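Figure 2 data, in text form.
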Amino acid sequence: MDMQKIGGFLAALRKERNWTQDALGEQVGVTNKTVSRWENGNYLPPVEILQILSKLYNVSINELLSGERLNSEHYKANAEDYIVTDLMKKSKDAKTHITVACLVAVMTILAGLAVILLGSLLSAPIWLRICCIAFSLVIIGLGIGVCCVLTVDAGVYECPECGEKFIPSMKDFVFGAHTFTKRKLKCPQCGKKSFCKKKIR
């Protein structure tokens, strides 16, 4: 994405309508300095502003992000580029979520075990030891919860029966028996419950 090109295109579109940066800023709800930053290529307008600019200038968001008017052939090519970029970003985000989830799981299990060990080594009353064990179980439970939130939609599960790819509900995800790469889930397409393989999108 060429920020300078996008900025120049935004400036040219504004000038075609004989609008000042102040006038455009009033229409989209920003200051003239913000408009200037967009047009200098320092910042990209947020999605909601791109939608407004698209309507104001009568161009597509694809054209705004390309920094030029596109014919049908270029439009298609650019659309595919953005789709590929988006898919690569989703895949990278999913891998990051899974890595963070693994780290959280290891850290919470180690912290929980450390508290249990500490409780057993202390020459303290039984009630205090029980409190230590309960506290460690809460820590481990919270860690598992965070892992579930991070990984439930980090990729999809593929049904081995019909090949359907889907994201399970949080309840099915949490209570489904699982290995590291598979989880026992009910397929929304064929309705069969089986060990579905996780695939990073």
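Caption note: The helical segments are 3-16, 21-28, 32-39, 47-57, 61-66, 72-121, 126-151, 170-175.
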